[in-house]
Structures are given as structure tokens and as C-alpha cells.
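Now for today's protein:

——
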Amino acid sequence: MKLGKHIFGVSVMTGISRVFGFFRDLMIAHVFGAGRLSDVFFSAFKLPNLFRDLLGEGALSSIFIPMYTDRGKDENFAKNVFSWLMVILLGITLVFEILMPLVVVGLTPGFADDPAKMDLTVLISRIMFWYVVFICASAFLSAILNAFSRFLLVAFMPVLLNIMLICAMLFSAFFAPLTILYIMAGTVVLSGIVQFAILLGRIRRHHFGLRLVVPRWTPAIKSMFKRLGISIVGNGFYQITIIVGTMVASFQNGAVSWLYYSDRIVQLPFALIGLAAGTVLISSISNAMADKNMRSVYIQQNFALRQSMMLIMPCVVGLFVLAEPIIKYLFEHGAWTPESTHAVAIAIMIQVLVLPAMMISQIYSKTLYASQDVRTPVKTSIISLAVATAIYLGAFHFVGYLAVPIGVVVSGYLKNYLLRRACHRRDLIRTDGRTRRAIAVFTVLATAMGAGLWFVPIPNIWILFVAIGGFAMIYLPLAYFIDRKI
């Protein structure tokens, strides 16, 4: 029950963050439109976001928490890691500040035709890149708090960034657009500082003496950064795969946008359920493994499997059945055409089929990370992403942009199979009969209700909301009752 409470709390915070992120994007579109200044902002913001994905958040916590827990949550180990991390982050930042013109030319070569736009992007990128220092340091502080099962404040931090950007745009409403751009760049950095200060304050209130020390190169530090390097290689390969998918789709007019919107819709339930479960499990399973309590590990895995599949199956069926009306009533306005609605809906109907595999893969991969096995998740990611890339390139000639969601689905289930096989070989997971029966019942129940929903006419957005609400109000109590009975 405690595990479920933590997952629910992180999921709620993730949902709040997505809502504020949606309003943030609406306001940016209102202030800048889709033109020169928005290009500059998003291009400059892409670089620190890339480093946050590679060095911070999931990668850092997945490596640090198991090692930290295995060492009895040793303060000296945490101080040493923190000190090395700050040295590395400051070094990276100084190098990129110096080389920023070359970096911007490499990332946005099209800006070279407009020297003023290029110079502005370099300047804004130099301002915003300092966000990397504070957000990656905040990711480390978040990992410490998660190791002590403090999840809610950590999950709230992305909300803070969105709130501060919204407030900055409201505050600067009467300024010139160029001035607003500078204010937003400064706000991004300020949000990193605020997040870092809040998390550090929470850690110190728990009498944890985290501070900078003279960094020492110990075997534990060497092992950690070696594992982090392996993880970064895997994440880097993921970024390359996204770029390849975008390049392939760019050969079909409108396909890049179609895939962007379909991916945003499909990723929402995974972020709310899958990422929340993974965030909590890496800490709880690491604690159980440190105590050599494999029975607790198996219990947590089965609980997470039942709960996550109970929630994800109606999302899969609902998005499959309602893909077209969802896109139609959310996006079919202004320049958006019915053809675009249909194209995005078809992509959603294919890509949504990967959600169960993504959910279960989260549990397998976090179990391997908790056992301090970094290589296996990275190897499986590289293999599955290589297969996805091959499908993108090979199937595009036959099915066009749909080669990308097809590749995502095939590679997702391949990754799930490889991770499951690795866990079973090491006896790291045992799926009991209750869990298998529960997942089968959830699948049948959601599919049966979806079949009925297929024949419900959806003439407007209000009926769409009623259909989604009615589906949830019937399915969730039944699924919860069945889960308790099983």
C-alpha cells in the first residue's frame, strides 16, 4: 500500500507538471508565435535539456541510488560524488560557453543564413546553459531524497519550472518581445537555482551534512562514473534514433508534425504511470536488495505489475478507439486539416500498442539497475533501437511515416523480451499466478469495454469527455474489485 501511495503521488505531480507545461506552451505560442524568436528560444533551450536528459534525472538516480543504498547511505560517498559532479558540470559549462558559436552552428545550421538570428541564439544559449549546472545538481539531490523515500517534493520540481516561466511571461507582458526572450532565458536559470536551493534545504533539514569537499578518486567513484558513462551511451543512442526517425519522416510532407503530436499523446499515460512507477521502484527495490530481501523485491514487482497494467490497459484501448475524435476536437482548428487528424490518429492507433511493453520494461530495467547491472539495460536499448532504426529505413518506402510507430512497437516488445530474459537468468524477478491472472482479466475487461465504446457516436468534445469519464467510472471500480479478489 505504501508503494502504491508513493506511485500515486508521483503520478499526480507528473500530471500537474504536464498541465502547467501545456499552458506554458500556449503562452509561448501567444507571445512569440511560430517565428524568429520562438526558434531562438526553443533552439537555445534544447541544449540544456539534452544535458539534463543525459546527465541528470533518470540516468543519475538509476546509477547512484543502488550504489548509495548498498553502502548503507554513506554520507562521505554522497559528498564525494556531489563534489566530483559539480567539478564536471562546471568544466562542461565553461567549455560550452567558449565553444557556443560552433555548437549552435552544428545544431542549427539553417540559422547561418541570418547572422543576427545566429548571434542572438548564441547569446541566449550562453545564458541558458548555466541551467545545466543547477538542474543536474538538483537531479543528484533528488536521488538522495528518493533513496530516503521522499518523492513528492522531487516530483514537484518540474512544475516549478513551468510556473516560473508562466509568471515571467505574465510579468513581462508589456515589454518588447526581445526583452521577454531575455527575461525567459534568465528565468530558466533562476528556476534551476531555486530548485537546487529548495532540495538542498530539505536535505539539510533532515540533518544530512551534504557539502562540497575536496574530491577524491576512489574505486567507488571510478565505478560510478564508468556506469554513468555506459548509461549516457545508451541515452545518446536513443537521441540518435529520434533524429533518424525525424529525418526519415521529413521526406513526407507534414509527417514530422504528425509523429510529434501522436508521440505526445501516447507518452502522456506512460509519463503518468510508467515513469512514476520507475521512480519509486528504483529506490524501494534497491533498499530491499541492500537488505538481501529478495522476497520483498518479488512482492514489490508483482504489485507494481498489477497496478500499472490495471491503469495502462484502459489507456491503450481508449486511445485506440478514440484516437480520431481526440485529435479532431483538440487540434482541428484553423490551419489543421481533417487529413492531418486522420494521419495522427492512425499513428496513435499503432504506437499505443507499445504501452504495455514500455510499462513492464520499466520494472525490469529498474530491477537490473537496482542490482547494479548497468550494461544489460543499455545493451538491450541499443539492440532494440537499432532494430527500430532498421524498420524506419526499410519500411518507409512501403508505409511512409507509419514506419516510425511500427518500428517503435516492434522494438518496444523486443526490448521487453530481452530485459525479461536477463532478469530471469539471474532470478531477479518472479511473476506469480495472481499477477498473470489479473493482467489477463484487465486486458479482457478493457477490450470488451472498448469494443462497446467503438459504436458510441462522438459528435462533439463534450460527448468525448463523457465517454472517457464513463469508461473510467465503470472500468476502474470493476478492475480494482477484481484485483482485490484475485
